[in-house]
Amino acid sequence: MRTDSSPGTLPAREHLPATAAGTPVLDVVIPVYNEEKDLRRCVLRLREHLARTFPYAFRVTIADNASTDGTPLIAAELAAGHPDVTNFRLERKGRGRALRTVWSASDAPVLAYMDVDLSTDLNALLPLVAPLISGHSDLAIGSRLSRTSRVVRGPKREFISRAYNLILRGSLQARFSDAQCGFKAIRREVAQVLLPLVEDTGWFFDTEMLVLAERAGLRIHEVPVDWVDDPDSTVHIVRTATDDLKGVWRVGRALTTGSLPLDRLARPFGDDPRDREITDVPKGLARQLVGFCVVGGLSTLFYLLLYSGFRQFGGSQAANALALLLSALANTAANRRLTFGVRGRGGAVRHQAQGLVVFAIGLALTSGSLAALNAATTSPAHSTEIAVLVVANLAATVLRFLLFRAWVFPDRRDAAPVPSPTQAHAELTTISTGDPR
User: What pLDDT score does 273 carry?
Assistant: First the structure.
């Protein structure tokens, strides 16, 4: 996966201001490969629709993916004859490569793309980009799988599309409904940070972009579309499906290992009441408490299962110690990733070592409880042992959360380090010269 540097934390979303004529607010990219038959009709129809219905200045960009037929000539003629049409030639194929190249170079604040066959009804274009213009959303996608969408296509494509999206939901926990509809838009400042993290250059580009955006907490708006299948489509279904499954495996592995720096996509949400300062409540405490409780509940079940199993082969103290050790390792790893949002492998060994110190405290509490129980009665019932351990674990859980939050996984974002003289000089130089680095 890519780990290139990127501009950094996203700014708060704002409504785009009305601009003077000639300054495009929307740049619609049409990726093409050997589309001499449909290109002219598509561009002219799209221009006419935008001129009639879109209240802002726009641009249509033809992204030619190394076509070998008459497509480059037609694209050049359209660009020469219409000031709001541009032509971009790439010498290598790949829809993802074309979109990344053109979107990265565009100066329009809203970037979109659509397929040249115009399978999607153009009446959905303004609803697609309106949430991006208003500042409500970061990305927008057309969905053929919405309840209110009207779709005409064969059963084979319908089955493949729904099966693919089920795979995404099951493997990558995707919540968007239609990854491969050729009808999407994105705000430019989001694209500048998100695109360097997207590795695929082909048809999986859309899916990878959406999964990373969703995992980073960006807002994705879905628009139901009317869509008619193009029977002359040149997409190779089997090869595309195989490449997509490879992409699902690659992205899933990267998300599991935490190798993607998704924190670069963090965005302040401005008027979101959940982000307002609340007196005397530490930032992120509510979310961390929920995550810790969920992880703790699952860890307790895991611990009790282990204890019951180990108890069949040994004494209560040995079974408790071993079960608590294994569940503590799992608990620390889960809290590290899910509760406190620590990604990557950096500091993992130190966190586990500190977690073992917390484990030792829990072991002392639970072992002491068992010792007290055994002192009170010579042969306690198994159910009594379980009840005592549950109570002891609840007491240890409160202390564990406090230690995790304050010692093992402290939030250092609010404690800005004091810059060295060299760093301070560099920052002052950047401010005075306007260097974007």
Answer: 47
Q: Which of 64, 115, 200, 206 is catalytic?
A: 206
Q: What residue type is assigned to position 339 of the chain?
A: T
Looking at residue 184, its pLDDT comes to: 96
Low-confidence ranges of the chain (pLDDT < 70): 1-9, 18-22, 231-238, 263-284, 411-437
Active site residue 206: yes
What pLDDT does residue 22 have?
Answer: 64
Extract the tokens encoding 380: 């306690």
- The reported pLDDT for the residue numbered 264 is 62
